[in-house]
Structures are given as C-alpha cells and as structure tokens.
Amino acid sequence: MKVYVVIDTNVLVSALLSRHRDSATSIILANLFSETIVPLYNDEILNEYEEVLHRTKFHFPESEVRLILSAISEFGISADRIKCSENFPDPNDIIFYEVALSKEGSFLVTGNTKHFPKTPIVVTPAEFLEIINQK
Predict the structure, then answer these.
(1) In the chain, domain spans
(2) Mean pLDDT, residues 45-53 taken together
(3) Interatomic CA distance for residues 102 and 57, integer angstroms
(4) 110: alpha, beta or left, given left = phi > 0 and alpha = psi -120 to 50?
(5) What is the pLDDT of residue 87?
(6) What's the CATH architecture for 3-134?
(7) pLDDT-based confidence at 134, cuts 50/70/90?
C-alpha cells in the first residue's frame, strides 16, 4: 500500500548529512526510491528543496540533489494547497502543512514537529517509519 507524504526539507537535509543508512531519515529517502511512499509537493516546495539543498554550507553533490528532486517529481504527485487558519512560528512551514491537507490520509514528516499544529498528520521520521511498517 502506498503512503502519501509531504517531506519537510529538514528530513531531506538530515538524510543527506547522515552517515547511517539505518537512520529514520535515510530509510525514508530509500523508501522514496523504492516507491513505497508517494511524495506530495507543489512548486513552492520544490523551490525550497532546490534552494536549501544547494546551500554551500552543506556541500551536497549536485548529482545527489538532482537525483532526489527528480525522484520527488517523478514518483510524487503535484498537489494544491488547502488553506488553513493555523498559526505557524515560521510562515515558510505553512506550505508543507497545507499541501499535506490536500490528500486524505497523507502525512507531513518533519524533524520540527513543534513548528506545526499538533495533529495526527504531523509526524517525526521515526513515527512515520512505524506507520509505513504497519501498512
């Protein structure tokens, strides 16, 4: 069964920085390539991924960044935002939450759950792995 997910940028960064292939973020990235999960995105999210993953402080190889962005576009679904009235400490996070609202049964996986409303769709990488392992 496919699981729909909006992947917060910090999860991608963490996966690329991790030296441990068994870390939750690395496993989520592997699930993207095995098509176990279906990423939801829009142009704003893709633009943020592009901008953050190209920051010089990370030194991510261009080939890895291209591979991830291509996989998200190829295996994912472009989705519209569903406006919400929630308050967010960082207005840039609203995009991720509103795209997650666009598909029933989807999740927003983030390392910063405090930045989002406390709802069942907002989960940590470890919680998300538990969810997909139960499906």
Answers:
(1) 3-134
(2) 98
(3) 33
(4) beta
(5) 86
(6) 3-Layer(aba) Sandwich (3.40)
(7) confident
Query: Which residues contact residue 97 at a Cβ distance below 8 angstroms, ignoring those fewer than 6 apart?
Result: 6, 84, 86, 88, 108, 116, 117, 122
Query: What tokens were used for 30?
Result: 């592997």
Q: Which residues contact 34 (CB under 8 A, 6 or more apart)?
A: none
Q: What is the pLDDT of residues 7-46, one digit of tens each?
A: 999 999 999 999 899 999 999 999 999 989 999 999 999 9
Q: What is the 3-state secondary structure (H, E, C) of the chain?
A: CCEEEEECHHHHHHHHHCCCCCCHHHHHHHHHHCCCEEEEECHHHHHHHHHHHCCCCCCCCHHHHHHHHHHHHHHCEECCCCCCCCCCCCHHHHHHHHHHCCCCCCEEECCCHHHCCCCCCEECHHHHHHHHHHC
Rounded distance between C-alpha atoms, residue 69 and residue 75, angstroms: 10
Q: What is this structure's pTM?
A: 0.95
Whether 1 has a pLDDT exceeding 80, the answer reads no
